[in-house]
Amino acid sequence: ELNYRSTPEILALANASIACNRHRLPKELRAVRASGLKPAYVVCRDHYVQARFIGEFILHLLDENRRLNDIAVLYRSHWHALELELELRARNIPYQVRGGIRFFEQAHIKDVVSFLRLVQNPRDELAWRRCLLLLPRIGPRQAGRVWEQIAQADDAWEEARAVTTIEVLAPAARPFYQQLMQLLEELRSLGAPGDMIDAVLNSFYGDYLEAHYEGAVLRKEDIRGLANFAAQYQTLEAFLSDVSLAGEFEGETCKAGPEEQEFVILSTVHQAKGLEWPVVIIPWLADGRFPTDLAINTEEEEEEERRVFHVATTRAKDELYLVVPQMYYSRGVQTMMKPSRFLTEIPAGLYEAMELYEDLPEVTVGRRGTREAIRAR
Prior knowledge:
By secondary structure, the protein is of the alpha/beta class. It has 15 helices and twelve strands.
């Protein structure tokens, strides 16, 4: 029961949380280290402010002589890092995703984005080759033949639909190519990028995920998260412009990690087991996100989710920040989010509130007995 990692304040919160599990062996972690800061409870207006707060607060921690390697952001599901990755890139904060694959560099996200890139630009060779290779009976050679037909035409889109292009494929592959063209026709008729992503998932690509990946359910969750994220964009061009800053699409999987010697770690909680950092930030602490609504149908599932939360909190050595978005925006619908039950069941005296100004030009926090201002950069 002796814990050499975390401060007594962090362990007090972790112990209070896991004590809510009824089916467990009685155990209470006791700290060896001296007393430190209480965990901080941070309420953000919405998930966009949440990402901006984390990006700004990382810069604040650096001003306090923390190193990038001291900081980890731990989340329940991979798609929870979506806005945050874009925020860190915009602020030029080096980061690495634990496990090596950033959100926009995952194969299934690249696949979906490639369909949308073809709608925007039917002369995108990389997108054509990627989409064609998803189809049964079509390999690199036949994909190359299709691209050659399209590339030499004055009207790339009309050539892609032409009989002459279909006939360069083997007869067994033609029905699958026609499915692709039907999907692209549907995407061209839709105006909103979020609706386009939904259409891709509901097409043959959803079956492709089931057939080729063991974790198809989680990959579909990633794609739905991407669709909700894309709903904030008025045009496909604007969405793809931001996405292009977040990922490289030349490869089939992902590029190598950053060359920087130091970087913030982004990780799912499961990938973080056994690791530790001086500062841990846990975002998306709202019911339906953490705990995830995919795993709270039974008492056993809820208790397993609480164990995951316990793992997350006990990764922190010195400082722990618990971030709660109040609102979630999706497809023009504003949804009020309830704070995670894993927080509301904890006595309030075990954490302290961190206050954010509404528009986040500066953040006022109470830390180390003072009130300090974080200026927006």
